[in-house]
Amino acid sequence: MPTGQPDLWGASDAYERYMGRWSRKVAPLFLAWVGAPPAARWIDIGCGTGVLTSAILAACEPKRVLGVDSAAPFLEAAKERIRDPRVAFVKGDALAIPEGDGAFGMAVSGLVLNFVPDKDAAIREMIRVVRPGGTVALYVWDYAGHMQAMRCFFDVATALDPAARDFDDGVKAPICRPGPLRDLFLGAGLTGVEVRAIDIPTAFESFEDYWAPFLGGTGSAPKYCMSLDEAARERLREAVRRRLPTGPDGEILLAARAWAVKGRVAG
Asked: Which key words tag this protein in UniProt (predicted)?
């Protein structure tokens, strides 16, 4: 996952529990909306543990998929989980993709853009590696709005400790809204730009199922959670528990929204 915060993402298993399980629900909906001809060449930038790559293989009949990521633990997890002759994984950065001009028909990225320090440069790189008429598309979480699991956490955390705002992607990632995403793509010269919301349910079996990923230290909210001393973390835990809607059997039913954007390379 290319990022300007190299210590933010490290443990692939922790990421799977924190965000990977929800990204698996978004990825097929994103791909169905993007649309792609069979036998296309794809590049998945910030491929992480291979969630989006797996969905491309399952739904899009690709000729080739290249997964690029700067985090070695994620790449190793992806290589272990995905053994398909059409796929290769390489270490690289979103700002310097290790591929030639026009090498792909589809360039996609899932849940990465907000962690890239120069977003304009990242989109230019995606465009560079796509042939004229090809597609550039990505999706990000709606951190400031309908990502309920994280919004509850940070709303409670900030009420207890204003310093939590420094970790809140809803504050730190203004790009994760439809207007800024559309402007980014249009400003880069992409044509036929469209933005849409993708909504999924996020059901937790219990409060422990909800809370455990925040103890993994991977991602902004877990980083904040694990920066607290034990007493402060327990206060936060209990305050979050009181805020969450809980069903009669302890289940917690929430929802998550991702914003997706796509455009065509001119030429």
From this structure: Methyltransferase, Transferase
Evaluate whether residue 139 is within a structural domain.
yes
SS3 state of residue 230:
helix
- Predicted confidence (pLDDT) per residue in 152-181, tens digit: 999 999 999 999 999 999 998 899 999 999
Is residue 90 situated within a structural domain?
yes
The total number of structural domains that make up the chain: 1
Closest CA relative to residue 3, chosen from 76, 68, 90, 77: 68
What sections of 35-103 are H helices per DSSP?
51-59, 72-81
The model carries a pTM of 0.90
Q: 211 — alpha (psi -120 to 50), left (phi > 0) or beta?
A: alpha
Q: Check which CATH number belongs to the domain holding 79 and give it.
A: 3.40.50.150
Residue 179, domain member (yes or no): yes
Q: Which of 21, 248, 13, 24 is nearest to 149 (CA)?
A: 21
Range of the domain at 93: 12-145+172-201+256-264
In a domain, 99, yes or no: yes
Q: What is the pLDDT of residue 15?
A: 66
CA 159 to the chain's CA centroid: 26
Half-sphere exposure of 240 (CA within 13 A, CB side): 26
The predicted structure's pLDDT at residue 3? 42
Q: Is the pLDDT of residue 10 over 70?
A: no
Quote the CA–CA distance of 106 and 38 in Å, as a whole number: 11
Which 3 state secondary structure label does DSSP give 105? strand
Task: Kindly report the number of other CB atoms within 10 A of residue 131's CB atom.
Answer: 14
